[in-house]
Amino acid sequence: MLFKLENVSQVAFEDMNQVHREELIMVNDIYHYLTTSAVHDHQIIEKMLQEFAFHLRDHFLFEEDMMRETNCPIYSCHESEHIRVQKIMFQIFKEYAVSKNINLLKFYFEFEFKSWIENHILTMDTVTGAFLKDKGIISDS
Ligand SMILES: [Fe+2]
Ligand SMILES: [Fe+2]
Predict the structure, then answer these.
(1) Which bound ligand lies closest to the C-alpha atom of 13?
(2) Residue 28 C-alpha to ligand 1 middle, in angstroms?
(3) In total, how many domains does the chain have?
(4) Is 117 a domain residue?
(5) Chain segment 4-16, per-residue pLDDT in tens
(6) Could you give the dihedral angle defined by the CA atoms of residues 39, 41, 42 and 46, in that order, rounded to the nearest 10 degrees?
(7) How far is CA 127 from CA 19, 53, 77, 134, in A?
(8) Nearest listed ligand to the Cα of residue 128
(9) 4, 24, 26, 123: least buried by Cβ within 10 Å?
């Protein structure tokens, strides 16, 4: 298991936490398949990567929409970071589509995505979640 969900940092906006949980469960499933299956079906992997990419896109759009609607001061740098990390993801997934190199994906999730999302939740998402809560958009935490 790549992510222990109970150890993932929580932000003040519960809907964001829910999206993060869904995404990390998805990554755990992909990582489990990559690391435990004796034989890898590349069509299955491509499908999982596509679902993950869609989830990541929706996750980011959700946060960006909320920030835009509330004039969140870190909107611009937070959005730029989302765009930057999606470009890396698409680059890696394109390389995988050509090479079918499982180790490339393992490396991506272990050493690129994991540290990135943990740090991102602790920093930009935490700031954004607190801002949204301050705006009174949400009632729980
Ligand atoms: Fe997020
Ligand atoms: Fe974010």
Answers:
(1) 1
(2) 17
(3) 1
(4) yes
(5) 999 999 999 999 9
(6) -130
(7) 16, 24, 12, 11
(8) 2
(9) 4
pLDDT digits (tens, 9 = 90+) for 85-112: 999 999 999 999 999 999 999 999 999 9
Domain-embedded: residue 139: no
**Cα 139 to ligand 2 centroid, rounded to whole Å:** 20
Structural domain span for residue 126: 10-134
140 lies in some domain: no
State in Å: Cα 33 to ligand 2 middle. Answer: 26
Distance 61 CA to ligand 2 centre (A): 9
Which ligand sits closest to the CA of 81? Answer: 2
Place of tokens 């870190």: 74
Q: Does a structural domain hold residue 40?
A: yes
Structure tokens of 90? 């698409």
Q: pTM of the predicted model, to two decimals?
A: 0.94
Q: Which residue has the tokens 């999302």?
A: 117
Residue 97 corresponds to which tokens in the numbers above? 């589509």
Ligand 2: centre distance to CA 63 (Å) = 6
Q: For residue 44, what is the domain's CATH number?
A: 1.20.120.50
